[in-house]
Amino acid sequence: MSATNDTATQFDVIVIGAGFSGLFLLHRLRGLGFSVRIVDKATDVGGTWYWNRYPGARCDVESMQYCFEFSPELEQDWNWSERYAAQPEILRYAHHVVERFDLRRDIQFETPVETATFDEVNSRWLINTDAGVEMSARYCVMATGCLSAPNTPRIDGLDRFEGALYHTGRWPHEPVDFSGLRVGVIGTGSSAIQSIPVIAAQARELTVFQRTAHWSVPARNRPLGEQERGEIKARYPEIRARAKKSFAASDLRVNDAPAARASAKEHTALFSEGWEIGGFAYMTSFNDLLFNADSNQVAADFARAKIREVVEDDEVAELLCPKIIIGAKRLCLDTNYYQTFNLAHVKLVDISGAPIEEILPNGLRARGTDYELDVIVLATGFDAMTGALLNIDIRGANGASLREKWQAGTPNFLGLTMAGFPNLFAINGPGSPSVFTNMMPAIEHHVKWVAECLCYLRDHELSHIEATPEAETQWGKHSDEVAKGNLRATIDTWYVGANIPGKPRSLMPYIGGFPLYTEKCQAVVDSNYAEFNTR
Ligand code: NAP
Q1: Residue 93's closest CA among 129, 65, 126, 132?
Q2: Distance of alpha carbon 531 from alpha carbon 472, whole angstroms
Q3: Which of 152, 162, 250, 508 has the most CB atoms around its CB within 10 Å?
Q4: pLDDT tens for residues 78-99?
Q5: Is 391 helix (H, G, I), strand (E, B) or coil?
Q6: Nearest to residue 17, comparing CAs of 153, 104, 126, 108?
C-alpha cells in the first residue's frame, strides 16, 4: 500500500519513525489540529516489528497488554490469538491501527533521515534525507525506537563469508528455508533464544556459539480463547490501571514480600508458582530479587535446577546455566529453548573468554576449531537506546551536536528532552523507563505528554521550549539516586552500553519505575513547564 504522495515539506511536527510511537503521535497530534509528517526509512510501518522478522520472533509482554489503550473501541475490537503474539500478528495489528485511523496519508517511507538541524532564526527543525530533500517543522520528535540500530560485531572475515548471513534485527521479508543446511547462530540473548528452537526444527545441523549464558524462563505461550479474551476485555480499565501502578507498567502476579524473610518452603512454593505461570512473573515471586544479592541467588539456584532437569547432557547443562545475576540482563522467555539442546543435530560451543577468531568463506573458526556453515545468524543485539538517535547528525542551538553532548553519557531531562536542543523530543529516550517497562503504556504516556506540551505552547502563543541545564543536572542526580542498590545497575549489559565497544558506560533507562516516573513528568506539567525555558 502506498504512503503519502503529498509533496509538502513544511509541517508543525515531523516525527521520525513509523513504529507504534510514531503512529500514535500522528493520530494524537493530528487530532489536536497539528500538521504532522512521519518519515521512516522502512518500506512500511511497524518499527521493531517491521525489522525483526526472524523465525520465532514474538513479544514477551502478554498480547492483551502489549496493545494500545487510547481507543477503547480498538481495545475491544482487536482479538489476539495467543498469550504472547508472534511478530506477524503484531505487524497486522500495526497495519490495522494505520487503516483504522487513516494514518497512511501522512507517512513517508523509504526516507532515511541523515541530519536534523535547529534553525535558530526561525525556531524550526530542518530535516535532511538521504535524497537531499529538506523538510522543516516547528517541532521534531524522535520516535526511533530503543532497539533499532543492529549491532554487527567486528569479526575478522565477516565480509568474506560465502554462505548466507543474517542479522535477527534485519531479517528478510521472504521466509528463509534452513532445510538441509548447516546453520551457526552467534549470540544467546532474547532473539537467539526465540529463534534457536525454530531454526533447529528445520536445519540439518545447528551450532550455537555462546559467549554468555543468558537467563531464560518458560514463556508458557498458548492460544487465547474467546472466553479468556472476553474476561480480560471486560476488566480492561482495572487491568490497565493496575499495570500503570507497577514498576514495569505490566499487570503481573506479584508477591510483595522479600525472599530474604521467607522460608525455604516458601521459596520453593513461590518460585514454582512463578515458573508455572511463565514469563516475567518468575521475577515478581518476591519483591527483593533485584535488590538483595542473596535473594537473587536463591532465585538463580532454583532456575538452574530447572535447566539441569531438562538438559540431558550434564556438560551442556552446566554451560547453559547462567553464572550472572538473574534478571540483571534482560530476562528471556522461551519455548523449548533448553529442550533444543537435547537434539542430536544441535551443538553448543562455549566461546566465553575466547572470541570467535575468524569468519571463514565456508564457516567460522572458534577455539582453534573450524566449523563448516552454510548460514550464519547474527543474534548479536543492538546499539541500544542511543544508536538510532546518534545515527542521525542532530544539531541543536549554536550548532551543538548530540553526538558530542552524549560522548560520555546521555544527559537529558525526563528522557524526553535535552538542554541545548529546543523543540526536540524523544519518545522512550535514554533517561526514561522505556525498556524496563511494557513499551505500549510507556509510548502512550510519552505521546500524551508531548501532545499536552505542544498544546500548552500553542495556547500560550509560545513557539520555543528547551529544558534548562539545571533541570538536566537534577534529573541526572535523581536517576543516579534511584539506581542505588539496584542489581541491574551493577553488571555489564546493553542497558549500560557494555555490549558496544567504546560506548560510554552509563545506565541509560530510568530505573525508578513507571509510577514514580509518571509522577515526575506530571509535576513538570503542573508547574507549567517551570524546568524549561519558553518563549
Ligand atoms: P542481546 O540481548 O544483546 O544478545 C546479543 C547476544 O549476542 C548476546 O548473547 C551476546 O553475548 C552475543 N554477542 C554479541 N556480540 C558478540 C560477539 N562479537 N561474539 C559472540 N557473541 C556476541 O540482543 P537480542 O537477543 O537481540 O535482544 C536485545 C533486546 O531486545 C532484548 O534484551 C529485549 O529487550 C529485546 N527483545 C525482545 C524480544 C521479545 O519481546 N520477545 C525478543 C528479542 C529481543 P554477551 O551476552 O556475552 O554480550
Answers
A1: 65
A2: 9
A3: 508
A4: 999 999 999 999 999 999 999 9
A5: coil
A6: 108
Mutate which of 90, 188, 191 for ligand 1? The one with the most ligand atoms within 8 Å of its CB, which is 191
Closest CA relative to residue 499, chosen from 182, 186, 141, 57: 186
Angle at 165 between CA 162 and CA 168, to 5 degrees: 175
Handedness of CA 151, 156, 159, 162 (dihedral sign): negative
Q: Can you tell me whether residue 105 is helix, strand or coil?
A: helix
E strand or H helix that includes residue 185: strand 182-186
**What does the pLDDT read at residue 1?**
41
- Neighbour tally for 169: CB within 10 Å: 23
Q: Which residue positions in the chain have pLDDT lower than 70? A: 1-7
DSSP class of residue 523 equals H
Give the three-class secondary structure for 267. Answer: helix
Which of ligand 1's atoms lies nearest the C-alpha of 155? Answer: 18
pLDDT of 98-136, one tens digit each? Answer: 999 999 999 999 999 999 999 999 999 999 998 888 999
CA 518, 523, 526, 531 torsion: positive or negative? Answer: negative
SS3 394: strand
Distance 346 CA to ligand 1 centre (A): 20
Contact between 253 and 282 (Cβ < 8 Å): no
Residue carrying the nine cell digits 534452513 = 178
Cβ distance 397 to 421 under 8 Å? yes
Distance CA 314, CA 148 (A): 37
With a 6 Å cutoff on the Cβ, whether 376 touches ligand 1 is no
As a whole number of angstroms, the distance between CA 190 and CA 52 comes to: 12
- In single-letter form, the type of residue at position 287 comes to N
Nine-digit cell string for 172: 528478510
Q: How far is CA 464 from CA 118, 135, 492, in A?
A: 11, 18, 39
Distance 58 CA to ligand 1 centre (A): 15
Please give the C-alpha separations between residue 275 and each of 220, 283, 301, 343, in angstroms, as whole numbers.
Answer: 9, 9, 13, 23
Contacts with 358 (C-beta within 8 Å, 6 or more apart), sequence order: 155, 156, 157, 364, 365
Nearest atom of ligand 1 to the alpha carbon of 333: 41
Cα 4 to Cα 28, 116, 125: the distances in Å are 18, 21, 21
Distance 57 CA to ligand 1 centre (A): 13
Alpha-carbon dihedral angle through residues 136, 139, 144, 145, given to the nearest 10 degrees: -170
Protein residue whose Cα sits closest to atom 35 of ligand 1: 190
| C-alpha–C-alpha distance, residues 4 and 37, integer Å | 9
Closest CA to 282 of 494, 60, 533, 103: 60
- Cα(160)–Cα(363) distance, rounded to whole angstroms? 10
Shortest-distance atom of ligand 1 to CA 351: 20
